[in-house]
Design goal:
By secondary structure, the protein is an alpha/beta fold. Helix content is 40%, strand content 18%. The protein has one domain: Glutaredoxin. The radius of gyration is 16 Å and the shape is globular.
Length: 210
């Protein structure tokens, strides 16, 4: 239990430290989504290409995964508290969007590839939401995806397979052909997340098509 509290505390600390960094990276002129952002301005270097493995064991790229507005979260299936809460919150936001006629998806990327096999991710995603995409990969693939999104994770020392993994807890809104546009903290409610995501989806309609 002491390890659990320590892991949650580290995740919270990472969020406090990383928050200003993400905010600064969002701040750039010419943001087409400024009306959606509540003071922050879009752009930055967060997000980008990744190659991971889906629940069917297929190697997929970000272009194959992000085919609709996506709420991307980095966590792991053995996480006892933070990840299930955040993943359920993201799934609820997707349901709220669907009620408005808007199609989005939650994406859960494992930072624990040693335990989170494709089958584990498939089952985990299916249990949380029918639209959820569960992704894992090799240690190198997961690290590359984490670096692209400026996330943090580190497995705690353990003598058995019941180790915990410290990790950051932001959720990233990623739009097809556009990329990362917004991040959400843990305290963001499903209603707030859905409202903000809907704003971005509406604003994206006015952008030139590739």
């Amino acid at each position: 239990m002491q390890k659990l509290y320590a892991g949650i505390a580290v995740a919270a600390l990472v969020g406090l430290v990383a928050g200003p960094l993400v905010y600064r990276q969002l701040s750039s002129p010419g943001d087409p989504f400024v009306a959606c952002r509540q003071g922050a301005v879009g752009g930055g270097t967060i997000g980008g290409a990744f190659t991971l493995v889906n629940g069917a064991g297929q190697t997929v790229t970000d272009a194959q995964v992000i085919t609709k507005p996506s709420l991307v979260y980095f966590g792991y299936t053995f996480c006892p508290d933070v990840c299930p809460f955040d993943a359920a919150r993201n799934a609820q936001a997707v349901d709220l969007l669907e009620a408005q006629g808007l199609d989005a998806q939650p994406v859960f990327i494992s930072v624990d590839p040693a335990r989170d096999t494709p089958q584990v991710m498939k089952d985990y995603a299916a249990n949380l939401h029918p639209k959820m995409v569960g992704l894992t990969g090799s240690a190198e693939q997961v690290k590359a995806a984490s670096l692209a999104y400026k996330t943090y994770f580190k497995a705690q020392p353990a003598e058995d397979e019941f180790y915990l993994v410290d990790h950051s807890t932001f959720t990233y809104l990623v739009l097809p052909q556009i990329g990362f546009v917004e991040f959400f903290k843990r305290e963001t409610t499903p209603e707030q997340m859905a409202e903000t995501t809907a704003c971005y989806m509406e604003a994206a309609k006015s952008l030139p098509k590739n």
